[in-house]
UniProtKB/TrEMBL annotation:
Keywords: DNA-binding, Transcription, Transcription regulation
Protein name, per record: DUF6597 domain-containing transcriptional factor
Keyword 4Fe-4S attached: no
Species assigned in the record: Streptomyces litmocidini
Entries under Gene3D superfamilies matching the protein: Homeodomain-like (1.10.10.60)
Record-linked Pfam families: DUF6597, HTH_18
HTH araC/xylS-type domain mapped to chain residues: 189-290
SMART domains per the UniProt record, alphabetical: HTH_ARAC (SM00342)
Cross-referenced InterPro entries: AraC_XylS_family_regulators, DUF6597, HTH_AraC
């Protein structure tokens, strides 16, 4: 990557106990080709060699991901059956992935609203809460079938997963995406701008305010988000609000939870605690103690 190239973001928002994850896997992000940057957050690469199984947990962003993954060493008898690619729609709940042995993942995280120009035939809500084989969304890649079977291995899989060099993997991901778009889509641009507004402007706490800011009716706003983001504007507002609460809980064990609840737009501290406990499984104080422990 050249010295003048933009850098991917470095935050760990959405990762449950990021210090634990980063101590067990080699995780990094890379910037895509210039033509793809308006539509993508980044590429994310992960490699691991674990002496015992580990479960990673994530509160997903309102993003679609394309994920190429391999479990086991290349060339092993089961290598063909343990490598596959899939499209992961916006995840609605806590996502847990068990990692074992040796493995590799190369992922594409699209900006919320940025996936539709690459698969314009379907509204993005088609994939929400689902993980489907890559060939189901990009039939020209081949490999329709159940994830994890030889029939599900698409044409791009070896080019993405085989290189040990990060730049070669990034080049393969660039080539894959550029072969599939992006198709011009003004509605996608509008959806991405509105999600950026939600993410950057904390005063946008209600979908009605977003509708006013966009000049759209409430119904048109809902249709735009269903077609291009995959979830409604209220859901996106709540998810980014929760990411902020998760990050603050992980970095400040003595946080003023009542003040944080008010700052993030929760009705009161009890509302924040209920939301946090329902999503993560423990209240924020218990989570803060757990992630701060040696």
């Amino acid at each position: 990557m050249s010295a003048s190239a933009p850098r991917p973001r470095r935050d760990t928002r959405g990762i449950v106990d990021p210090a634990e994850l980063l101590s067990r896997v080699r995780f990094r992000r890379h910037v895509p080709a210039p033509e793809l940057r308006p539509y993508l957050e980044h590429y994310w690469l992960m490699d691991w060699e674990l002496p015992e199984p580990y479960a990673s947990r994530l509160v997903p962003h309102p993003s679609v991901n394309v994920v190429f993954q391999r479990y086991g060493r290349p060339g092993a008898p089961t290598a063909a059956a343990s490598a596959w690619a899939e499209v992961a729609g916006v995840g609605l709940g806590l996502f847990t992935q068990k990692l074992t042995g040796v493995g590799r993942v190369c992922g594409v995280q699209f900006r919320p609203g940025g996936f539709r120009p690459f698969a314009p035939a379907w509204p993005v809500s088609t994939w929400t809460g689902r993980r489907v084989p890559l060939g189901d969304v990009f039939p020209e890649e081949g490999g329709a079938g159940s994830a994890g079977t030889p029939a599900a291995v698409p044409a791009a899989l070896p080019a993405v997963l085989s290189p040990d060099d990060d730049h070669a993997r990034v080049a393969a991901l660039d080539a894959f995406l550029l072969a599939h778009g992006p198709a011009p889509d003004p509605a996608a641009e509008q959806a991405m701008e509105l999600v950026d507004l939600i993410r950057s402007e904390r005063t946008v706490r209600r979908a009605s305010r977003l509708a006013t800011a966009s000049g759209l009716s409430a119904r048109s706003l809902q249709r735009l988000f269903a077609g291009h983001v995959g979830v409604g504007p209220k859901w996106v507002i709540l998810r980014y609000r929760f990411h902020e609460a998760l990050e603050r809980a992980g970095s400040a064990g003595d946080a003023d939870w009542a003040a944080l609840a008010a700052e993030l737009g929760y009705s009161d501290q009890a509302h924040l605690v209920r939301d946090f406990t329902a999503t993560i499984g423990v209240p924020p104080t218990a989570y803060a103690r757990a992630v701060s422990a040696p």
